[in-house]
Amino acid sequence: MPWNDEFECMPVEKLEQFQLDKLKETVAWVGEKVPFYRKKFEEMGIGADAITDVKDVAKLPFTVKTDLRDEYPFGLCGVPLKEVVRVHASSGTTGKPITGPYTADDLAQWTECMVRNFYAAGVRPDDIVQNAYGYGLFTGGLGFHQGATELGCTVVPTSSGLTERQITLLKDFKTTVLCATPSYALTIAERAEELGIDMKSLPLRVGVFGAEPWSNPMRKEIEERMGIKAMEAYGLTELGGPGVAFDCEAQDGLHINEDYYLAEIVDPATLEPLPLGEKGELIFTALQRRAMPIIRYRTKDITRLRRETCSCGRTFLKMDKVFGRTDDMLIISGVNVFPSQVESLLLDIEEVEPQYQLVVRKRGHLDQLSVNVEAKKEVYDAGEEKRLEIEGKVARHIKGNMGIGIKVNLKAPKSIARSEGKALRVVDERPKDV
Ligand code: DLL
Fold it and tell me: How far is the CA of 27 from the centre of ligand 1 (A)?
């Protein structure tokens, strides 16, 4: 059962008409209020009149991360600053952060999206929600906090880190829902095991995980180790944070909050729109936001979209689990490789832990990939011969499934840094472009 069935179960034709109306309003709004878009629209000779069908979104210009950096901090803001009630930001790895301003109404929309996310994950007002996403500029902390508060849950705002305290509170407060990145959830599960605490015996029953790519085998691993149902949240600072798309009980793709976000898939090389079902880069237009009314934002996330009847009754478009970011895609011997594909395969091997890092180096003109993965303690302790055998086993499994030769280094247990937020899965040791 959805939270807001008027929208979440709206017949597709009606939904598309609603999106069309909102798209026209937003295009008119940014054309008037945001000089960056006004200039682009003028150059392209386009405006709200050119939009007579939702598909006409493809006539509009893309927005990319560097545009946000160039317009830092508030160049893309669609309202006077006095109407902005909150600003979040994402640090990124280099340069200036990306800012995400909100009007009071934008915040209310975001909260609604997060309530839908929680509700679809099976969370109800009598749940005790421990929120281990980082609080602060990161949208995870406050986004989840607002949603759970609005739903009427008891919220425990632990933020990320202090893992032992997380475990103590899970026990003492009888927490039933944990919100965290999947890699931090795994860190918590592992620490609990070290402390001799059986997480399966705790009242915890649901996790709402996101903010980084994770494979389905990783989902299973976390579900089994914690004795919970691991549900998913997807979103990004540029679109307001988590709540853009969410898992339902079918756990078969994430429903996009389509009354707020218009999704497209394009070929990342040609930027041509791709039909439903094809894998490509995900593009979003925010349909109702006013402080950050972004048009055709290139997320760099690779996935595919599906329009199908879902067993949960929602009509919202579904996106597959994100395969990875174009930034993290490696080309090894001509094959496109995403870390999450390697993750899936590592989880098939019982002698290793789900703790790994990919290392990319340059050899001549070619990229070379190796994987550092932790051995289970008894395997590591069994000596070098055993370790070599397992390295060979992992390498053959990857070669057999992906067709690429990867050097596998079996590492000592606990030697790879544990994540408290977004895990660092790829270490890039290639010389930087000059
Ligand atoms: O990570 C917002 C968020 C917070 C989402 C908490 C879910 C839960 P950013 O820091 O701006 O925002 O990072 C956005 O993270 O473009 C994806 O590459 C990745 N990402 C977010 N959710 C998922 C997910 C938040 N469920 C970037 N699966 C996005 C895969 C995800 N990748």
Answer: 26
Domain end (from 327, 356, 387)? 327
- For ligand 1, whether the C-beta of 140 sits within 6 Å is yes
Q: What's the CATH code of the domain at 9?
A: 3.40.50.12780
List residues bridging with 233 in a β-sheet.
210, 246
> Same domain for 337 and 302?
no
Specify whether 248 is located in the same domain as 355. Answer: no
Give 3-state DSSP helix, strand, coil % of the chain, rounded to 5: 35, 25, 40
| CA 19 – ligand 1 centroid, Å | 24
* Same domain for 357 and 294: no
- Tell me, yes or no, whether 316 and 336 share the same domain: no
CA of 130 relative to ligand 1 center, distance in Å: 19
What pLDDT is recorded for position 433? 65
Q: What is the model's pLDDT at position 363?
A: 84
Task: Give pLDDT tens digits for 255-307.
Answer: 999 999 999 999 999 999 999 999 999 999 999 999 999 999 999 999 999 99
Q: Is the CB of 237 under 6 A from ligand 1?
A: yes
Structural domains in the chain (count): 2
Q: Are residues 297 and 341 in the same domain?
A: no
Give the whole-angstrom CA distance, residue 59 versus residue 62.
9
On whether residue 434 sits in a domain, the answer given is: no
Do residues 159 and 261 share a domain?
yes
Q: Hey, which of 131, 208, 212, 281 would you mutate to test ligand 1's pocket, going by the most ligand atoms within 8 Å of its Cβ?
A: 212
The CA distances from residue 155 to 178, 259, 266, in Å, are: 10, 27, 39
Helix axes 182-194, 163-172, angle to 10 degrees: 80
- Angle of helix 216-226 relative to helix 182-194, nearest 10 degrees? 30
Give me the pLDDT at residue 327, please: 87
Does residue 181 share a domain with residue 148? yes
What is the predicted pLDDT for the residue at 333? 82
Q: Which pLDDT tens digit goes with each residue over 398-429?
A: 999 999 999 999 999 999 999 999 999 999 89
> What mean pLDDT do residues 154-165 have?
98
pLDDT (tens digit, 9 = 90+) per residue, 57-80? 999 999 999 999 999 999 999 999
The domain containing residue 391 runs over which residues?
A: 330-428
pLDDT band at 93 (very low <50, low <70, confident <90, very high): low
Residues 76 and 157 in one domain: yes
How far, in Å, from the CA of 210 to the mean position of ligand 1? 6
